[in-house]
Amino acid sequence: MTKFGPRSITTAIVADASQTMKLVIWSHELLEQLREGGFYCISFLRVKMFEKGQLNTTPQTKVIPIPPFEDVKSDIEEICHEQVINVQLQSVQVLKKISCPICFKILDSNEYQQPLVRCSSCNFKVLTTSLPTQISVVAYAQIDGQQKKLQVSTEAVETLVTAESKPELKDDLDAFEDFLILNKFEIHLSTENIVTKMRKC
Ligand SMILES: [Zn+2]
Fold first, then answer.
1. What is the mean pLDDT of residues 152-168?
2. DSSP string, 52-111
3. How far is the CA of 61 from the centre of ligand 1 (A)?
4. Whole-model pTM?
5. Last residue in a domain, options 77, 96, 112
6. What does the pLDDT look like over 130-146, one tens digit per residue?
7. 167 lies in which domain range?
8. 147 and 48 assigned to the same domain
9. Residues 103 and 181 occupy one common structural domain
10. 179 and 129, same structural domain?
11. CA 146–ligand 1 middle distance (angstroms)
12. Which residues lie near ion ligand 1 (Cβ < 5 Å)?
């Protein structure tokens, strides 16, 4: 559920001749146009700056079926390989991010405190109060005897606050940081140290 209404989120794996990536599908209509193993030309996707290796659909995303091609990279095993571990986070930073609806550049926090701002990237003037905010969580934890920097996906943040019935944490970032440090979590950790799922132990 987002503040714009219900949303079903599905994660898929997409591949072309050069690489394999995760694709987060944010709309049921798009999902219905895709089937596993199909070949498509998918346009108007976005890559979030703070979730490398992951594509997201946008309201403009178009799906066109194309003829199959032979040369598909398949390191799907590798990208799906996730560790499930219990961690105690040692230090965390929770930030609120807003991205430009035109070019998807992350706006500077000074910029989005004002109701109107000119995006320094695309030069459009945007009303920041109408934009969805995303919570970015970066944390450090000791894993396998090593200090690791973890990036919690926005999807994992959403499911965590929903499961804990604490949506207010997204508005009180200081309380959110306390919650993350003072509890233990079971996390799903990708090979790129992205937390794709987390829940309180
Ligand atoms: Zn822009």
1. 92
2. TTEEEEEEEEEEEE----S-----HHHHH-EEEEEE-EEEEEEEEEEB-TTT-PBPPHHH
3. 18
4. 0.57
5. 77
6. 887 788 899 999 998 99
7. 82-200
8. no
9. yes
10. yes
11. 38
12. 100, 102-103, 105, 119, 121-122
